[in-house]
Amino acid sequence: MAEEELPGVLILDIGGTHGVLENIAALLKKHFHLITMKEFLGNKEEMSKKIQSVFVFECRPSIDRELLESLPNLKVIGNSGVGVDHLDLRMISSFGVKVTNTPCAVADPTADIGMALMLASARRLVEGNVFNFPG
Question: Which Pfam families match (predicted)?
């Protein structure tokens, strides 16, 4: 499928301090034509018609009424995190746009860290790590 035939997804950027991680961008490119916020703002009239989804990564891009009004073909906002507290769901749904997230994406790593912290605490690993043995 040619890039132009793929639905457009708006992202803040690829890489850098606040952009989508490059491995995630590579996965998105298999299913979407990626449009960065810079590209969108540089040619709003043309790009706004192509964008059918927004991929929110680390709460960016910010979803506000102005952005929603400028995306007439927007169907879904995908949030790459567990919660959606940073999104105004009532306002978004008033535009007929669905919101999705990844509720189980960090369940296993969170459990792993929790177990590691409990074991480290029970075995006093942090204290042992900084303890200087004579010798």
Answer: 2-Hacid_dh
Question: How confident is the model over 113-123, as pLDDT tens digits?
Answer: 999 999 998 88
Q: Which two tokens stand for residue 127?
A: 């204290």
Residue that wins the pLDDT comparison between 19 and 3: 19
Q: Does domain 8-122 have CATH number 3.40.50.720?
A: yes
Tokens 């008033």, residue located = 94
Q: What does the domain layout of the chain look like in residue ranges?
A: 8-122
Distance of CA 97 to the CA centre of its chain: 17
**Tokens representing 5?**
């035939």
Task: Say if residues 10 and 37 touch (Cβ distance below 8 Å).
Answer: yes
Assigned token pair, 10: 């708006």
> What is the number of residues in the chain?
135
What are 74's two structure tokens? 């927007």
Q: What is the pTM assigned to this prediction?
A: 0.77
Q: Which percentage of the chain shows pLDDT scores above 90? A: 71
At 90, the pLDDT band (50, 70, 90 cuts) reads: very high
Cβ within 8 Å of residue 42, ≥6 positions away = none
